[in-house]
From TrEMBL:
Keyword terms, alphabetized: Copper, Disulfide bond, Glycoprotein, LTQ, Metal-binding, Oxidoreductase, Repeat, Secreted, Signal, TPQ
Cofactor or coenzyme needed: Cu cation
Signal peptide: 1-27
Cysteines engaged in disulfide bonds, as pairs: 60-124, 73-134, 104-114, 255-265, 339-403, 352-413, 383-393, 500-510
Location in the cell: Secreted, Extracellular space
EC category: oxidoreductase
SMART domains xrefs: SR
Highest taxon of the lineage: Eukaryota
GO BP field: collagen fibril organization
Lineage start: Eukaryota, Metazoa, Chordata, Craniata, Vertebrata
Source species of the chain: Haliaeetus albicilla
Catalytic activity: L-lysyl-[protein] + O2 + H2O = (S)-2-amino-6-oxohexanoyl-[protein] + H2O2 + NH4(+)
Keyword Metal-binding recorded: yes
Name of the protein described by the UniProt record: Lysyl oxidase homolog 4
Length: 759
């Protein structure tokens, strides 16, 4: 067997060799290769496969847990595991099942080092294949599928895995997030201090970026130097002995300030000359960071400094957690996406810092955060890393590059550690993704776990809980939790009347009752949630509405069915049927699912209702609201709450239609597909018989009651400017509610008011 060298010896070896050194297990003399397989999905997730004796095989889910997933993800070159999956979630593999009952501690360098039954010894079938979901940027130079054991942040010559700030002063220790302290770097599994000799502001900028902060700030180190010297003289402190050992230090780091990770900076762990002491007269490097507006005390709105000129506002859409999402840019008054050609960590980091986060953990390509709708504004973005805004980077106009929304770029940013995850938990569920919501809040001066009142609990609140726990989106918000037992120590209701906007980072930041008021009394009426990693995102095709709108005077004799289904204004009740007609504003409605999960109705088949007009079952009773509003926002036409049968009317090339209304079929809208209700279908209208001529706003709201969870509710409203002269109608300026910048929306409204006054 091979013997590991003594602690001091690796420092004398060329550091490049350290990266190849893997502690072998008794069972496997060489590091094994892993890969992720299964249907094409986001990077970092899939069925786990292992190469042994020249053959790829799978791993059984028996005994597989989060520790094993952590080891696998690190071995694959990712930072960490998000979760693991069982029962062949990513499809059944082929070939041998190499590993079964895998038990890891979490710190192993390779799955081969974990305890298992032995290679090929298994009582499983491929329906039990394990999978993983990993997070963190895979660094360049790694093969895309198979890789040997290693850690994030490896570059030739150095293995830096993590960075942290160790707070020294009392005020820094009380701060959350920790913003000031001594830099500590994890190198080959051990934490080391970094010498302050030659430490620069650029180094601080990179460290702050990794910790989720957009900027560093100057720190007066003279007080820290006094503390250091006092500790060196203190006979009870071990600092003097420790600081004389080279294994205590990282000798020198030289960053340029635009690196996304400290591992990209030239670094000397040990002094260049043999037997030279590291950091002979120095102390530990001190860094102080400035948080972005979201993470400042009191969650203030935070004014960000913007220089005139090239500042293009950016936003993130459809992300699961804070600091991640599809990148959208405001140009020419309209929000649009960025093409992923040459999209890299430097450009992604500019976006992250501009939004008040740190550097980018991942620069995601291939619409991994869903596809946008509307223009693609930028392509081939090239940033140095020092820009204040994405608009300062060089880029091409996307029209000439042939980009499509399948190539929308996205980011995952480093965000400060806020410890919110420890202040909420789910209890009693069948899996870790569901259960009764229990929160940690101060009760009479001390922190206590308790339940949340189920009254008024909805999807917005559930979304915040799932995000806070790092479990993705909420798929269900439950006001009654009969079949989940909460924890005995959290039976008391400690929170009621919770109202969230849905964007908060923690439930504790939402509005709630001062004194708790919960007449139902908690217990089985406590709030519960079910979380899911991916969610659908429905968006109305605004352009199609504009192109297909027209007026029809429809005879009453053709409207009996529609009248029964309440698709006409109430004045139709008083007409002399079947004589006369109703004036209908008709249009086609095409609703796209741009998310990463199928949109499925909330109700099961048993609750669907038969609609005689359309000759099929409707799975959602109120799927859209159609309204005609005055420019002040009050309704003029009664509008119409439309129920739908949901199906894949069309899908892009390469995607199969899976949902169909005919023959009591399964209903839903698949990822990437769309459901079209043509203008000539009954009830696909607004009855404007009683509406006087004038200028109006035509509005469609999709999924208005938020009955089904979506990754982004901000694009569910579609509005058009509508001018009606009593005989004809003009529909123009159709857009989803979040498609334009505020200035453009204000201009549109001003023009509408002027037009209305002139009519």
């Amino acid at each position: 067997t091979m013997v590991m060298p003594a602690a001091a010896r690796p420092i004398l070896l060329p550091l490049v060799l350290l990266l190849c050194w893997v502690a072998p297990s008794g069972q496997e003399p060489a590091p094994v290769q892993l890969r992720l397989a299964g249907p094409r999905g986001p990077a970092g997730e899939g069925r786990l496969e292992v190469l042994y004796q020249g053959r790829w095989g799978t791993i059984c889910d028996d005994g597989f847990d989060f520790h094993a997933a952590t080891v696998a993800c690190r071995q694959l070159g990712y930072t960490a595991a998000v979760t693991w999956t069982h029962s062949a979630t990513y499809g059944q593999g082929e070939g041998p099942i190499w590993l079964d009952n895998v038990r890891c501690g979490g710190s192993e360098g390779s799955l081969a080092e974990c305890v298992h039954n032995g290679w090929g010894t298994s009582d499983c079938h491929h329906g039990e294949d394990a999978g993983v979901v990993c997070s963190g940027q895979r660094l360049p130079g790694r093969p895309p599928q198979a890789t040997t054991s290693g850690h994030l942040g490896e570059v030739p010559g150095l293995s830096l895995e993590e960075v942290r700030l160790k707070p020294i002063l009392a005020r820094a220790k009380l701060s959350m997030p920790v913003m000031e302290g001594a830099v500590e770097v994890k190198h080959n599994g051990r934490w080391r201090q970094v010498c302050d000799a030659g430490w620069t502001r650029n180094n601080s900028r990179v460290v702050c970026g990794m910790l989720g902060f957009p900027r560093e700030k100057h720190v007066n180190t003279s007080f820290y130097r006094k503390l250091w010297n006092m500790k060196l003289k203190d006979p009870n402190s071990s600092l003097k002995t420790l600081s004389q050992k080279n294994s205590f230090w990282v000798h020198k780091v030289r960053c340029q300030g635009m690196e996304p990770h400290l591992a990209r900076c030239p670094t000397q762990v040990a002094p260049p000359a043999p037997r030279q002491q590291a950091c002979p007269h120095g102390m530990h490097a001190i860094v102080s960071c400035l948080p972005g507006p979201t993470f400042q005390k009191g969650m203030g709105k935070g004014r960000s400094k913007t220089s005139p000129g090239k500042v293009l506002p950016v936003r993130l859409r459809a992300g699961t957690h804070a600091g991640e999402g599809r990148v959208e840019v405001l140009r020419h008054g309209q929000w649009g996406t960025v093409c992923d050609k040459q999209w890299d960590l430097a450009a992604a980091s500019v976006v992250c810092r501009q939004l008040g986060y740190g550097t980018a953990k991942q620069a995601l390509v291939g619409a991994q955060m869903g596809q946008g709708l509307g223009p693609i504004h930028m392509s081939e973005v090239r940033c140095t890393g020092h820009e204040q805004s994405l608009g300062e980077c060089r880029f091409q106009d996307a029209e000439r590059s042939g980009c499509r929304h399948e190539a929308d770029a996205a980011v995952r940013c480093h965000v400060p550690h806020m410890d919110f995850q420890t202040q909420v938990r789910l209890a009693g569920g069948r899996s870790p993704e569901e259960g009764v919501v229990e929160v940690l809040v101060p009760v009479q001066g001390r922190l206590q776990w308790g339940a949340v009142c189920g009254a008024q609990w909805g999807l917005n609140e559930a979304m915040v809980v799932c995000r806070q726990l790092g479990l993705g989106f909420a798929s269900h918000a439950l006001q009654e939790t009969w079949y989940w037992a909460g924890s005995p120590d959290a039976a008391q209701v400690v929170m009621s009347g919770v109202r969230c906007a849905g964007t908060e980072l923690a439930l504790q930041q939402c509005q709630r009752h001062g004194p708790v008021h919960c007449p139902s009394g908690g217990g089985r009426f406590s709030a519960g949630v079910t979380c899911t990693a991916h969610a659908p995102d429905l968006v109305m095709n605004a352009q199609l509405v504009q192109e297909t709108a027209y007026l029809e005077d429809r005879p009453l004799e053709l409207l009996y069915c529609a009248h029964e289904e309440r698709c006409l204004s109430r004045s139709a009740d008083d007409m002399h049927w079947p004589y006369g007609h109703r004036r209908l504003l008709r249009f086609s409605s095409q609703i796209h699912n741009l998310g990463r999960a199928d949109f499925r109705p909330k109700m099961g088949r048993h609750a669907w209702t038969w609609h005689q007009c359309h000759r099929h079952f409707h799975s959602i009773e109120v799927f859209t609201h159609y309204d005609l509003l005055t420019l002040n926002g009050s309704k003029v036409a009664e509008g119409h709450k439309a129920s739908f049968c949901l199906e894949d009317t069309n899908c892009p090339e390469g995607l199969q239609r899976r949902f169909a209304c005919a023959n009591f079929g399964e209903q839903g809208v698949s990822v990437g597909c769309w459901d079209t209700y043509r203008h000539d279908i009954d009830c696909q209208w607004i009855d404007i018989t009683d509406v006087p001529p004038g200028s109006y706003t035509f509005q469609v709201v999709v999924n208005p009651k938020h009955e089904v969870a979506e990754s982004d509710f901000s694009n569910n409203v579609m509005r058009c400017r509508c001018k009606y002269d009593g005989q004809r109608v003009w529909m123009h300026g159709c857009h989803t509610s979040d498609a334009y910048g505020a200035d453009v929306v204000n201009d549109l409204e001003r023009q509408e008011r002027l037009a209305n006054n002139l009519v």
